[in-house]
Design goal:
This protein is mainly α and about 140 residues long. The protein contains five helices and no strands. It has one domain. Helix 4 runs antiparallel to helix 5. It is elongated. The protein starts with a helix and ends in a 6-residue tail after the last helix.
Length: about 140
Amino acid sequence: MTNQNSNKIIHISLWVAQVLLAIMFIMAGVMKSSQPIEVLAESLPWVLSTPAALVRFIGVSELLGGLGLILPALLRIKPFLTVWAALGLALIMVLAAIFHIMEGEYSVIGMNFLFMAIAIFVAWGRSKKVVIQAK
């Protein structure tokens, strides 16, 4: 396989990863930043033992991170922000895993690490392998 074909496959893989992660984080962010805490607690029981301001902050961070995975790269306006968004979301997933360990919610930690790994893949790919140039 030539280097050009390899880069094309990685480029497509990165876009797939970016879109899937963005959808997940945008949905989670909208939910955490806009739903009443009581409604949110039906699917995320941990929000009842967490300050509402922190839940909202996490939601806004996830929403902005999800948008940051797509918009800068798609519009080619400051595409390096996509790398920073991916790194920020990876950090959020590390912090989420620590939080879930402290709460004894071990069943969700695997998903935290999966999303973290995908975000790191996006950060690596968009910073080293297939960099999107600004307009």
